[in-house]
Design goal:
The protein is of the alpha/beta class and 391 residues long. Helices cover 42% and strands 13% of the residues. Helix 2 runs parallel beside helix 10 (247-285) and helix 11 (312-321) packs across helix 14. The structure holds pyridoxal-5'-phosphate (PLP). Pyridoxal-5'-phosphate binds at residues 74-76, 79, 106, 108, 154, 158, 183, 185-186, 206, 208-209.
């Protein structure tokens, strides 16, 4: 997969390389079978056939009906469509003006909620999490109201890897008659998803987190009446998402999900071993280090840490210079570092939250990669110490 001397990629939570088998499945739809699925002629019919096959394949594997799968330009758009679309629909249906989102959402939800409050007058409330980053059922039920339009809770945190008890949370929402959306973008890459079993009303996926193409996503939508479209135009996607479908990418996402579905047990088993190797190695070799997120209920490929008195950005840079591609959970900006909102929501102090590191492994990661990473990490940490801690 990677060239000889290539840096070691430990950032599969950011994106994954396209699977060769996915690439091959996509190719015919760029040139030979280029038709517009909406066209009446044979070119169009061919494309429509591929489109509907992909929809059926994804629906079957997610436990959904094909009509419940809406193709989008990526997970960000799916999140926007779910939150924005239901907020407006529920407001016009029943005057619901209250939105609940967890305090560990990806920006695609967090900033959408923020805009719905600032520009559109919704009352947005953040559901707190425990110190592991998990939403407790009581925290949700205590905040649900008659005028709650929609609830959005991430299935597994991209930042700290914690998996939320979505089934229990969905049951609470269902009892209150409030639609629940879950961003399952990280979760879906390594955990089996069945929307019926989970009981969610909406769920977002993005193909490039599971070895599919970037710029491709879907929204599972239990009932078309739950939302108003946010992108208007033609009657594509059940009149819920206008715009000519990206047939090659849709075929690619379906292929990537088929492969994931068939290989999920092996991937899970392999990755959990590598993840634990990272966690044990880091905690054993670095002083003043803590695992962030949940010790057990976490993604099988996700190890995340906080280090006291370390500049997370400098650490990433030193790791990169040493040939290791990792991520910090936080969105620090050089010059004026701000700790990540998610880490603060876990109750972490600034001097810890500024020194975050996320190591996410994937199907191309080897034991040797991790050994080399663990060997290099202590020197990168030493170089990244902040001399004065401003608490
Ligand atoms: C990556 C990611 C997204 C956004 O995906 P895009 O491909 O950038 O649209 C949303 N939510 C989570 C949890 C993610 O990990």
């Amino acid at each position: 997969m990677f060239a000889k001397n290539s840096p070691i990629y430990l950032d599969y939570g950011a994106t994954t390389p396209l699977d060769e088998r996915v690439w091959e499945a996509m190719l015919p739809y760029f040139q030979q079978q280029f038709g517009n699925p909406a066209s009446v002629h044979q070119f169009g019919q061919q494309a429509e056939f591929a489109l509907e096959n992909a929809r059926r394949s994804l629906a079957e594997r997610l436990g959904a009906h094909p009509d419940q799968i809406i193709f989008t330009s990526g997970a960000t758009e799916s999140d926007n469509l779910a939150l924005r679309g239901t907020a407006f629909a529920e407001r016009s249906k029943r005057n619901a003006n209250h939105i609940l989102v967890s305090s560990v959402e990806h920006d695609a939800i967090a900033n959408t909620a923020r805009q719905l409050a600032e520009l559109h007058g919704f009352e947005v409330e953040r559901i707190p999490v425990d110190k592991f980053g998990q939403v407790q059922p009581e925290s949700l039920s205590a905040r649900l109201r008659e005028d709650t339009a929609v609830v959005s809770i991430i299935m597994a945190s991209n930042e700290v890897g914690t998996v939320n008890p979505i089934r229990n949370l969905a049951a609470i929402c269902r009892d209150s008659g409030v639609p629940l959306h879950s961003d399952a973008v990280q979760a879906a890459a390594y955990l089996p998803i069945d929307v019926q079993e989970l009981g969610v009303d909406m769920l977002s996926l993005g193909a490039h987190k599971f070895y599919g193409p970037k710029g491709m996503g879907l929204l599972y939508l239990r009932d078309h009446n739950l939302l108003s479209p946010i992108q208007t135009g033609g009657s594509h996607e059940f009149q819920l998402r206008a715009g000519t479908q990206n047939t090659p990418y849709i075929v690619g996402m379906a292929k990537a999900y088929e492969l994931l579905y068939d290989e999920i047990i092996d991937r899970h088993a392999k990755l959990a071993i590598l993840r634990d190797q990272v966690i044990e190695g880091v905690l054993a070799s670095i002083s003043e280090a803590q695992l962030s997120g949940h010790p057990n209920e976490r993604l099988p490929n996700h190890a995340s840490f906080i280090f006291r008195g370390i500049d997370g950005n400098a650490l990433l840079m030193h790791l990169d210079q040493g040939g290791f591609a990792c991520s910090s959970g936080s969105a620090c900006k050089t010059g004026n570092p701000e700790p990540s909102e998610v880490l603060l929501a876990l109750g972490l102090q600034r001097e810890w939250a500024l020194g975050s590191l996320r190591v996410t492994v994937g199907i191309h990661t080897s034991r040797e990669d991790i050994e080399r990473f663990l060997e290099f990490l202590p020197q990168a940490i030493e170089k990244s110490r902040v001399t004065e801690i401003t608490a």
